[in-house]
Amino acid sequence: MKLPDLVDLASGNLRSSLLRNGLTTVGISVGIASLVALLSLGVGLQELAGQRLSRSGLFNTVAVSTWRDARQMARRDAPLVLEDRKDPRTLDEAARREIGQLAYVTDVEPELRFVAEIRGQERSTITRVGGLPLSARNDEAFDTLRGRFFSGPQAAEAVVQLEFAREWNESDPYSILDQEVVMRYAERQPLPADSAEEDPGGGLEFGGLRDTPENARPENDQNDGNDRDDDAYGFSVVRRQQPLRVVGIVEEEPYGGMRSVSRAEFYVPLPLAERLGIMESSDLRGTVRAGSNQKTYDRLMVSVSSPGRVMEVQQAIGRLGFRTYSILDATRSLQRFFVILDLFLGIFGSMALAVASLGIVNTLVMAVMERRREIGIMKALGASDRDIQKLFFVEAGVMGMLGGVAGVALGWAIGRGINAGTAYYLAQRDFPPETVSSVPPWLFAAAIGFAIVVSLLAGLYPASRAARLDPVQAIRYE
User: Fold this and answer.
1) Are 117 and 126 in contact (CB under 8 A)?
2) Is 60 domain-assigned?
């Protein structure tokens, strides 16, 4: 029996019991709709997370720190297995230049966050200040920026968090825009290697102390015999001030709150902050560790030309003797989470489809009982068992295809409703709309194909039963 004949017979049989077959098809469409709606929710949440991370630039960023800091963390938070590194390298200017020369590295910037006093209009407050590169303008946190971003890398301008603006003027937070303020900070001034005198500028000096009878070590202090008189490195701390104009107010933390600079409340251009020579907490540790007056860093953020090169750059930096971390390390766990989420959503969505497949079995078994005489006549006229099986398979496949198409359309409509409801809910709370449900093209095709496969599997038993009918007994059936 040819395929067009099978399709014609199957269509006629389905039309003959339109109500029953229609209800079975509706059951399939409901099952597919629930499956598509749940999976589209998982896909939408995954895309939402990916878009946030992509726009923040974290996918092509590598954080670099020293193994010494990691080893100290391990002592506090044991157990943490680290490589045996007897002499971890210092993260200083020389290391920064060396990392910047690696292939696929586009920029190397420090994570600069410090404490400063902000003065203006008879107000004064101590706050955390962070240095932001100009590339941070592309971060989605600044989509709702009130005012504008920095006009240049050395611009004497500032962008503040909304919380800071509220503390500055609770009655009118946005009044801080275009105000002139003064940032008072501590400047780091390196001392000559042989200097152990007080800074003539009146700053506090952090220099090496030579061993003298007046300044001898306690008896229980261990000395490895490697002290040198020329080890008197240090720096002066001088109080400075920098006039700034507040040009913008941001409501959200940059980089999704995933970097230490994100937790600042007052932002200035990073190149400006570097030029000012602001002292950080790492400078104190660096003076003790390093053998020179070069500035040291807690962490460097390395920008890579593309996310696909991040792993290669991480390995190259690791060979230089530094510890690396990228958001791709965390997204492996995130991807595993979404895979498990999609799995469970698919299982729950398939339950309705499983119930619908039982409806197909019931419908086709009833069709076998009602059409025994018809099946007997077809066999008597030369139809083989295989032809009878194909006929019932085609009927099951047609119901599955129609139910799959209708179910995908219904699932897409449910997803649109979820997005509309979510947008309305967020708008009521002054949040921008978000797309939490997404139906990619592959989900359309997969859902329809899955509906057809499930329908064919459900038609196995009725088709096999119809094929086994004895034509003589089937013709005599009343």
Assistant:
1) yes
2) no
